[in-house]
Amino acid sequence: MTNNDYLRSIRFLLDVGDARLVDIMKLSGISVPLEEVKSYLLNEEDPGYLKMSDEAMAYFLDGLVYYKRGKDETRPPVPQELPINNNIVLKKLRVAFELKEDDMHDILKLAGFPMGRSELSALLRKKGHINYRECGDQLLRNFLKGLTMRVRG
Predict the structure, then answer these.
(1) For residue 25, how far is the Cα from the chain centroid?
(2) Rounded Cα–Cα distance for residues 138 and 49 (Å)
(3) Residues 6+ apart with CB under 8 A from 57
(4) Nearest to 53 by CA among 76, 24, 30, 27
(5) E strand or H helix at 132, and its extent?
(6) pLDDT in tens, 79-120
(7) Digitized pLDDT (tens) for each residue of the chain, 153 residues in all
(8) What is the C-alpha separation between 51 and 92, in angstroms, rounded?
């Protein structure tokens, strides 16, 4: 999945407009013009399509955490994790929506993609850990689908 795919899926999940996406990005300290965000949301074949950078996606994911949970001014900002991959997106969604391990399992079951506890915990480990496993596109798509069903009903 591309950063643009993540953005489109999360926008649908939250059921928000383009202007709200700009506001979410501002929460993390980056100002992106509305026209640029609209270009991110276009399909690749459309004229005006703009590929979203990893840095912009990292700021969006941090803004999403602040949007859903609030910003704690007493804590220093979290350093950006670059390049963005499926594991990072999964972790940020877990934090933003305050999901426990059981919640994540329920979401995957809801999407018709059940997974064992050890498999899921391997996705949430740091890269380089002996049990680390990369999150595939299919798993993240199903997680986003299940999370959307859970949030939007």
Answers:
(1) 13
(2) 24
(3) 3, 6, 7, 84
(4) 30
(5) none
(6) 888 899 999 999 999 999 999 999 999 999 999 999 999 999
(7) 899 999 999 999 999 999 999 999 999 989 999 999 999 999 999 999 999 999 999 999 999 999 999 888 888 777 888 899 999 999 999 999 999 999 999 999 999 999 999 999 999 999 999 999 999 999 999 999 999 999 987
(8) 21
Report how far residue 53's alpha carbon sits from residue 138's, in angstroms, rounded to the nearest whole number.
Answer: 22
Measured CA to CA, the distance from residue 25 to residue 40 in angstroms comes to 13
Tokens of 86: 């499926």
> What six digits make up the tokens of 39?
């270009």
CB 82 within 8 A of CB 55: yes
- The domain limits of the chain are 3-69, 86-152
CA distance 121 to 102: 11
Q: Which residue has the tokens 């929460």?
A: 27
Q: Give the residue from 13, 7, 19 showing the smallest Cα distance to 57.
A: 7
9: which 2 tokens? 């899926």
